[in-house]
Amino acid sequence: MMPNTSLKKALDHLKSQGIRMTPQRHAILSYLCQTMSHPTADEIYKTLEKKFPNMSVATVYNNLRVFKESGLIRELPFGDDSSRFEANVSEHYHIICKNCGHIEDFTYPCITDIEEIAAKATGFKIDSHCVELHGLCVECQK
């Protein structure tokens, strides 16, 4: 289970916002709270399609949008043109294997001074940043 988004906490949050809990919605949220794999919407669909044969990819996308708008998940637009999703909404970074695409979370103190320097240099009002580290995972190094 992800450290910052327990399933019960997430379900309570949705209920407080008046969002009805369907079995599909529960399954998608539960999967995201348990996985460390940063799945795409298609991967989530493929994982759950046997349990929910009538669920469509559009259902997955629509529920991911609801969860994202509720602040329960983050959409990660990595360089492979496939948005990935995670329930860990704490400040952290990602390490991506150049060979197999495996993604791991990496915790490091937030580098907000870069935002301040960029804002002063450009006049932008910076509200976020994204850091991706790339290399070879332990398995691909073997």
Automatic annotation (TrEMBL):
Chief subcellular location: cytoplasm
Q: Gene Ontology cellular component?
A: cytoplasm
Its keywords, alphabetically, are:
Cytoplasm, DNA-binding, Iron, Metal-binding, Repressor, Transcription, Transcription regulation, Zinc
Q: One GO BP annotation here? A: regulation of secondary metabolite biosynthetic process
Q: Name one Pfam family in it.
A: FUR
User: Where found, per UniProt?
Assistant: Cytoplasm
Q: For binding Zn(2+), which residues are annotated in this chain's numbering? A: C97, C100, C137, C140
Per the entry, the cofactor note is:
Binds 1 zinc ion per subunit.
Asked if the keyword Repeat belongs to this entry, the reply reads no
SUPFAM superfamilies assigned: Winged helix' DNA-binding domain
- Family per similarity comment: Belongs to the Fur family.
Put simply, this protein is called: Fur family transcriptional regulator
What organism is listed for this UniProt entry? Answer: Tepidibacillus decaturensis
